[in-house]
Amino acid sequence: MAALGWLTPRRRSTTARSVLAGEASAEAARKSSQEAEAPPSPDEEAEFPVHGDDRAAAFFDLDNTVMQGAALFHFGRGLYKRKFFDTRELAKFAWQQAWFRLAGVEDPEHMQDARDSALSIVQGHRVSELKSIGEEIYDEYMAERIWPGTRALAQAHLDAGQKVWLVTAAPVEIAQVIARRLGLTGALGTVAESVDGVYTGRLVGEPLHGPAKAEAVRALAAAEGLDLSRCAAYSDSHNDIPMLSLVGHPYAINPDAKLRRHAREMDWRLRDYRTGRKAAKVGIPAAAGVGAVAGGTAAAIALHRRRR
Questions:
Q1: Close Cβ partners of 31 (under 8 Å, ≥ 6 residues apart)
Q2: How do residues 178-228 score in pLDDT, each as one tens digit?
Q3: Measured between alpha carbons, how far is 233 from 240 in angstroms, rounded to an integer?
Q4: Residue 4 near residue 124 (C-beta atoms within 8 A)
Q5: Is residue 285 scored above 60 in pLDDT?
């Protein structure tokens, strides 16, 4: 199946496309979160995140940070099951997912191919249809892959009365499903163009990746009246250094080699749930301490059993 192009015209600079993608994602995230319930009230105040600080929020990358593997690839498996595309395309998704899991890092070429394929597959389908399918795919392929430790970190922010957002290159509709199912505030994700509720096969701006994520967080923070120096961000990838550098509390979660090195140089906090071991410098929110450690250990045991 021929993939359709998704980049905006070349006359736009990379920075302009990043800003456009970020602003579009922030607008979609705010619109979605207005219908969500407020985060639960905390039972007690924690040292960090600070209880009652309504100018603070937390931003979580999704792939390999909150969830094992890539959401886009799991979504592709679900679409194949529903006969959106053929076996050849499934083989491509499977190879890309295998690479992602083995390498533990995002390969730009593989990610671009996956996005091109996804856009061509959903072209002509209704947005409402994909949202409904996304709910089913979450239960089938994603729910069991959530890292308990990272989930505990997010809950610590919610318990402190703060908003928590996913920030991902995955389609915003899928990201919103995952955020809602995890009880988070909302999600920033790649915005696919639609006309009258039908996908056109093009993107608004560019994928929410790298600098575009930082622009989305910046735009959302401005709209929400947040103080980024009091906010936290969590990611596994060096591609998200621009986003992590925006906030006053950056965390490297399951970091790739480049991010681990950068985090150590910058004295950022690290946590690795893939093996259950603590990184050289461990720093987790006080309210999430016990839950995060237990979650990381549980994840390590599960992975060990799968490998036996």
A1: none
A2: 999 999 999 999 888 999 999 998 888 788 888 999 999 999 999 999 999
A3: 10
A4: no
A5: no
Give the residues across from 195 on adjacent strands: 198
The predicted structure's pLDDT at residue 93: 56
End-to-end CA distance of the chain: 38
> What CA–CA distance (Å, rounded) separates 308 from 294?
21
Tokens of 270: 């690290």
Q: Active-site residues: which are they?
A: 61, 63
How does strand 198-203 pair with strand 192-195?
A: antiparallel
Task: Give yes or no for a contact between 161 and 42, defined as CB atoms under 8 angstroms apart.
Answer: yes
Q: CA–CA distance from 97 to each of 86, 107, 122 (Å)? A: 17, 11, 19
Q: Does the N-terminal peptide bond of residue 255 adopt cis geometry, omega within 30 degrees of 0?
A: no
| Location of structure tokens 């994840």 | 299
What is the helix (H) or strand (E) element at residue 54, kind and residue range?
none
Q: Which uninterrupted H or E stretch holds 264?
A: helix 257-266
At 72 the pLDDT is 83
| Percent helix, strand and coil across the chain, each to the nearest 5 | 50, 15, 35
Compute the distance between CA of residue 234 and CA of residue 146 in angstroms, rounded to an integer.
Answer: 15
In whole numbers, what is the pLDDT of the chain averaged over residues?
A: 77
User: pTM value?
Assistant: 0.71
pLDDT at residue 94, as a whole number: 59
Q: Which residues contact 192 (CB under 8 A, 6 or more apart)?
A: 119, 122, 171, 172, 199, 200, 202, 203, 204
DSSP class of 202: E
Chain centroid to CA 99: how far?
19
Residue count (the chain): 308
Neighbours of 223 (CB within 10 A): 13
